[in-house]
Structures are given as structure tokens and as C-alpha cells.
Amino acid sequence: MGAKGNLVVGQSGGPTAVINNSLVGVIHEAMEHAEIEGIYGMLHGIAGIMNQEFADLRRESPETLELLRYTPASALGTVRYKVTDDDYPRILQVFKAHNVRYFFYIGGNDSMDTTNKISQVAEREGYELHCIGVPKTVDNDLAMTDHCPGYGSAARFVAAAIRNTALDTEAMGDSGPLKLMEIMGRHAGWLVAATALARQADDDPPHLIYLPEHPVTLEKVIEDVRVVYERHGFCVAAVSEGVTGPEGKAIGDTAAPVEVDAFGHKALGGVVDTIADAIRESLGLRARMDKPGYLQRSFAELASPVDREEAYAVGRAAVRVAVKGETGKMVTLARQPGQGYVWETGLAPLSEVANKERKMPREYIDDDGNDVTPAFIEYARPLIGGPLLTYARLAKHPYPQR
Amino acid sequence: MGAKGNLVVGQSGGPTAVINNSLVGVIHEAMEHAEIEGIYGMLHGIAGIMNQEFADLRRESPETLELLRYTPASALGTVRYKVTDDDYPRILQVFKAHNVRYFFYIGGNDSMDTTNKISQVAEREGYELHCIGVPKTVDNDLAMTDHCPGYGSAARFVAAAIRNTALDTEAMGDSGPLKLMEIMGRHAGWLVAATALARQADDDPPHLIYLPEHPVTLEKVIEDVRVVYERHGFCVAAVSEGVTGPEGKAIGDTAAPVEVDAFGHKALGGVVDTIADAIRESLGLRARMDKPGYLQRSFAELASPVDREEAYAVGRAAVRVAVKGETGKMVTLARQPGQGYVWETGLAPLSEVANKERKMPREYIDDDGNDVTPAFIEYARPLIGGPLLTYARLAKHPYPQR
Known about the structure:
The structure is a homodimer.
Chain A: E1 5-11, H1 19-30, E2 36-42, H2 46-50, E3 54-56, H3 62-68, H4 87-97, E4 100-107, H5 109-124, E5 130-135, H6 151-172, E6 178-183, H7 190-193, E7 208-210, H8 218-232, E8 235-240, E9 259-260, E10 266-267, H9 271-283, E11 287-290, H10 295-298, H11 305-323, E12 329-335, E13 343-349, H12 374-380
Parallel strand pairs in A: 1-2, 1-4, 4-5, 5-12, 6-8, 6-11, 7-8
Antiparallel strand pairs in A: 2-3, 9-10, 12-13
């Protein structure tokens, strides 16, 4: 059983449409355990610990917490700060000063590394501290979990978005038959792959899906677009921001200026422009672009109800296992085998998750490298929480010419 | 009273989330009038007449028509083709061959010009033809009408979008405090102005709104951003794709490659990139960008219920007045004075609408040129059809430091 003391919870990395559900899950569960005294919300992630900026979450009203379940982005504020080895003693010092015995970090693989290290430092110093990671990422790239809270909602948004923009493109006919949509995902194609959920029939858009896992040449992309355009009269492609050319080079070998964040991650962009330029040069056609950007991870109106529930559940589960004595673990989502979609929470060692990236497996990418397989559709479909709006299509029975 | 004969209806220009409502309105109303025999849908606008590509809309099922009211983009296909004087005789020839006596064109100011000219040519030749324009444009720039069907839904989308991305930006804190969203609207700022509907309190984002009606210098924008950032710790700006520098020059005087469509309209873009580059250079901060592009006019999930009803009503009204004998008119939307939002349809001469652009009046733009006025909010608020989702904000009562 866990010690009596205070709880600290924080949010890290890119926000999602449902990340506040995990926060509310932690708060709601914490309120049910006598071991937990104060519920501290760290403002802007780890920075909130370093600066002792903590919000008293017990004083938030039940109405606020309920509405927060429908409010996108990280209500506590988030951060992109790479914790250094020098920071851990300071973190532990603050935790000791506040008698913190429970620590929950809602984030991606960098945050899981931080959580793991805090757990290890506390153990080394013989300070009882229960550290549990709460998964979150629209990239869906955390190891050891079937999927990540935040992904289903972003997937629902991009599927709806590409279906809508594809109808617009189809309607334009020869006036604007090519559309490229740029989708988030630096190294993993889970989100761009989810655009395939827009399809109701096999030939429906998106006609082409380009993922970071499968490098392509500009020549291949142009040929793909040409073939689709000739067959359908229009072409809609979903392009991950992380698509590269062969051997990890930038697609088309353009040396666009690259920014690097605190974790050494490159800030990508421009892949879609490069492709559009190449299409114009080769096919003489203008490809229009949509770059929904941060809407992908914040569009609460399109949040997946399943995702919302799961995000809440992983928050609650984290507190439950911590109070039972666990530490150094991340809550996972597991899918039960059999008919229908049934999920439950599980646990994995943080060391198996920290700093790892789970990419799309080969069996989810089609042989040609420009689409997903039925196995992926089966995997992803339940996560968006029900069908998209039902749209109609005119039968267009022709009148005879005169 | 109108002659007995066939009806032709078409859609033109950029699609909207509710343009199919106007089509269904025309079909539903036409079915109630004995004067109207065949209901012809022209495929891809005026091209459908030239090529005699007509769909028999009487054969569409009631279920299809009902679902079409919730389906975005132009179900008949649209076109951007500038009708020339040489085309009108051919159009009239086709109409005569098919005994077409009613013509309805759902579109923007170019389409109103086309409709007007077809009406004039028929009149000159003594051929009875009732031509009525049905307004449609997310740009909201048609003259003689209080607002345009399609605008309310696009307005609802951009308001929701900027609110969501603003929450994301605020949550990022110092890790990404600047956001620019690029909004459609070549010459009129109605849509970018609608992002102001995201606000619940005065200080809420968007903090800055830049419209085509008010030229700005890069220096002014950078200073605006700096002031907002210093006050709030983050800054969210809505930027029209049509924003220019003084004297109609491109902002920042960059000579970006410009494409011109069949109407001589420039294909814009790049304004936001120019601003982002300037901010980076001057303030040393990276501004993140969202470019939702064609989602703004196709996102049916965010369609305004009011807009949907109005789009349907203008379609029905067009047929009603045509059957009564009108021609050369456009259906308008009029707002009744007094408490609450009450609308009705009206009529305006096509000659007063054709090829005209209604820009934002001065009293809707604030003195500093970077925001809208309360008068605009009062004008636009009812059009988005009800409030956005209710979001919560943590009170964040601080814990004392130790």
C-alpha cells in the first residue's frame, strides 16, 4: 500500500482533444483514496515542479471538472523541456518538501522517460514515491500499448477532414482536381493512415496515403497521382509531414531550413509544398493544399467518444495502481480478442516505453507503399468511436441529348 | 405566370457546406408546381449546359435528397469557367432544344453575372425564360443581401477552429506561444472577421485579426504581435489570405509566384508564411501556422443550422418567384429589425449584384485595423446558429511554495 501524502499530476508534450480527461480521471480517482491528501497540478509540466508552481486541484468545482472532459488542450499547461540529469535532485527536493508520494505524468515517450528517471532517483534515495505514466499522443507511437489516448480523436478529425475536402475536390472537377492534405506525424504514420477511415467504398478518397515508414521518390508520387487522376478525374492524397525520400533524405532532396526542438526533434514542414511543386512541373496541374496543423490535435467537436472514455480511464487506473504500491509503470490500453471492440487498462514497465517509438508495422502498409491494408482499418476503425456523418451522392440519371 | 416547361439548376464556384440545401430547396419547390416538368441538374455548372450533361433530378430518391441537406460540396459538380459572349447563343440553343423555361444558378457574383446575361439574351430573342440567381459564398461578399448562404457555416468552422488552436497555443506556453491561422477571403474579410466569434471574454483569442480591407505593414504586424505576447504570454492571430501591404502591394513586398484562374482572380497564399518569417527575424520566435484551406467551406460537421435552413429557403424562394413570372433577379436574405434574429427572403435585380463585391464596411473594423467591432459581432453572431461548445478553465488556486 502506498504512503499517505500528496499527489502531483502534470501534462506534457503536444496537447490532444482528450488529454484533460486523463487529468480529470486522476483527480476523480484521487478523491476516492484516503492515502492521498493534496492534489497538486503542476503548471506547464516539469517546469511547474522546478518553479513550485502548483495548482490546488481539490478546489476546482465539480462543474469545471466535468466540462474539462470536453475541453481540448492541456488545462494545466504543457511544456517541451528536456529534463537533464542535474534537474532530478531538484525535483526530488521539491517533492520531499511538499511530502509528494504520488506522481503522474500525462505525456508521450519523452515524458515516460522523465517519469521513469524520477522513479529511479527516488528509489535510489530510499524516498517512497509512486510514479506512474499516463499515455497521451495523437501520434499513437508509444510502445507496449494497443493505442494511445488522443489518437482516436485526431484520427476521427483527419478522417472527417479528408472526406470533406475530397468532396470539395471532386465537385471542382477540372477546375481543381488535385488535393494534398498534410497530416501530423514525424516518424510514425498512424495518423495519416487514419485518413483511410474516410472511405465508404474501396475507390473513395483518400486515393493515396504516404507514411514516414515508407520512403518515396518524387517520381513515384507523381506517377501515383497521374494514374489516380486518369482513372477518377481527381486525386486526393494524404501526406504525412514526416514523409522522406529514400535513405532518409528529404523528399526531392530539397534542403529546407530545419528547426530542432529541445529534444532534438526536427520541426518538419514543406513536404507537401515540395510535392505540389513537382506535380505542377511534371503534370502541369496545380495541387491545392490543406494544412490543418494543430486542429488535428485540438478539435474537440470531433473528439471520439471511445477515446474520451479511454483517456479518462487511464487517468483513474494510474491512481488505483499507485495507491496499491506500483511505481515505474505506464498504464496501457489492451484490446480483448474476439468479436467487437472491448478494451481494458493494463500496465507496462516505463523502461520498456521510455524514448521508444512504435511505428506502423509492415502488415498495415500496402505493398505499393501508398496505402494502408484492411488489417489497419480493422485495427483503427473502433478507435474513432462510431461512423462519420452519412453523406448522399446523386444517382445522376442522364437526360438524353437533343 | 410562368410557361410550362423544364427547369435547369446548377451549382457554380467554390462549394460550401450547405450549398446542396439550395439545390434540394429548388427540387422540393419545383415538385410542387405543375408548370415545371423535367428537373434538370446541370453537371459542373455551365459546362453541363454546353455539353448537354443533365441529370434527371426527379428520379433521385427522397432519402438521397434529405441526406444531401447534410452533405457538403456541390453534388452536381461545380466549375470555374468564365462564360464568354460567344457561349450565350449556344446556351440558349440548348435551352430551346430542351424546352427549358426555368433556370436557377446557385453561385457567387460571377455566376450572378452569367445568370443575368442568359436572362438578357433570352429576353432579346423573345424566348420566355425565367432566370433566378441563388446566392452562395463563404466569402459573404454578394451585394444586396444581408448575408450569403454558406457564410454562417464557414464562420462557425473558423470560430471553432481558432478557439481550439488557441487553447493549444496557450497550453504550450513558452514552448510555442505564437499561432497564425490563414483564413479564406481574397478581397473581403467577412470570414476572417468571424474568428472573433470564438471569444467569450474580451481578452480571448484571436488577439489579432487582419483583413483584406485594411492594408498593413509587416512592421505593424510584428509590433502588434509583440504587444499581445508581452501582455498575455501568447498570441493568436487570424490572417486573411488576402491581406496586403499599403498601396495594394504584397505584404512585405515579396514577389511570390501568383497564379490566375479563369476569372483573372489571383490564387493567393503565402501571406502567413511571410508574416511568420518576419516574426522569426524580428522577435526571434517561431510562429506556428494552421492553414485549414478547403476545410473552411466543406466541414459539414460544423455547419450552422441557421445557414442550412436559409440555404434551403433561398432555393425554394427562387422557384416560387420564377413560377410567378420573375426573371433577372437574385434571391436575397433580409434581416428584420428589432429584437432577436428574424430573417426572410427577398429579391434584388441581378444587375445590382453581378460582378460586385461587398466588402466589410468601415464600422465593422476597429480603428487600429487589427480587429472587428462589437457591431460586427452583433451582425455575425446569429449566423453561426448557436453557441460553440462550452469549455472549462481551471481556477488554478496556487499552493504556497516551500
